[in-house]
């Protein structure tokens, strides 16, 4: 039996585009993995530096206070708030709320807006202080 030369494709593949609820779902998974890997790494480094003495702790504080450390910490904070906002969205969906097309899209967009706003307020407070 011979295989056909060109395989049929779904007509929807050419018109399909990302929806905000799909991006929210994928982002929820990615932020969970990122929080686990990067968060555990930073926290372990912090604990080890504190236990090893003042020189090690000063090295950690120097890194965390630098631009790369601040970028990582802001990213971790945004990941935390995004993951938390998306988790709250899923709690509402678990009880049957927000399954409509517009409600689902709005709540997914709200997770991004809320996480960015809370991160901005959080770090504004930290940097102003």
UniProtKB/TrEMBL annotation:
<dbReference type="GO" id="GO:0016020">
    <property type="term" value="C:membrane"/>
</dbReference>
<dbReference type="GO" id="GO:0006099">
    <property type="term" value="P:tricarboxylic acid cycle"/>
</dbReference>
<dbReference type="InterPro" id="IPR000701">
    <property type="entry name" value="SuccDH_FuR_B_TM-su"/>
</dbReference>
<comment type="function">
    <text>Membrane-anchoring subunit of succinate dehydrogenase (SDH).</text>
</comment>
<dbReference type="Pfam" id="PF01127">
    <property type="entry name" value="Sdh_cyt"/>
</dbReference>
<feature type="transmembrane region" description="Helical">
    <location>
        <begin position="57"/>
        <end position="81"/>
    </location>
</feature>
<dbReference type="InterPro" id="IPR014314">
    <property type="entry name" value="Succ_DH_cytb556"/>
</dbReference>
<dbReference type="GO" id="GO:0009055">
    <property type="term" value="F:electron transfer activity"/>
</dbReference>
<keyword id="KW-0479">Metal-binding</keyword>
<dbReference type="InterPro" id="IPR018495">
    <property type="entry name" value="Succ_DH_cyt_bsu_CS"/>
</dbReference>
<comment type="similarity">
    <text>Belongs to the cytochrome b560 family.</text>
</comment>
<dbReference type="GO" id="GO:0046872">
    <property type="term" value="F:metal ion binding"/>
</dbReference>
<keyword id="KW-0349">Heme</keyword>
<keyword id="KW-0812">Transmembrane</keyword>
<comment type="subunit">
    <text>Part of an enzyme complex containing four subunits: a flavoprotein, an iron-sulfur protein, plus two membrane-anchoring proteins, SdhC and SdhD. The complex can form homotrimers.</text>
</comment>
<feature type="binding site" description="axial binding residue">
    <location>
        <position position="83"/>
    </location>
    <ligand>
        <name>heme</name>
    </ligand>
</feature>
<keyword id="KW-1133">Transmembrane helix</keyword>
<feature type="transmembrane region" description="Helical">
    <location>
        <begin position="107"/>
        <end position="128"/>
    </location>
</feature>
<feature type="transmembrane region" description="Helical">
    <location>
        <begin position="33"/>
        <end position="51"/>
    </location>
</feature>
<dbReference type="InterPro" id="IPR034804">
    <property type="entry name" value="SQR/QFR_C/D"/>
</dbReference>
<keyword id="KW-0472">Membrane</keyword>
<protein>
    <recommendedName>
        <fullName>Succinate dehydrogenase cytochrome b556 subunit</fullName>
    </recommendedName>
</protein>
<keyword id="KW-0408">Iron</keyword>
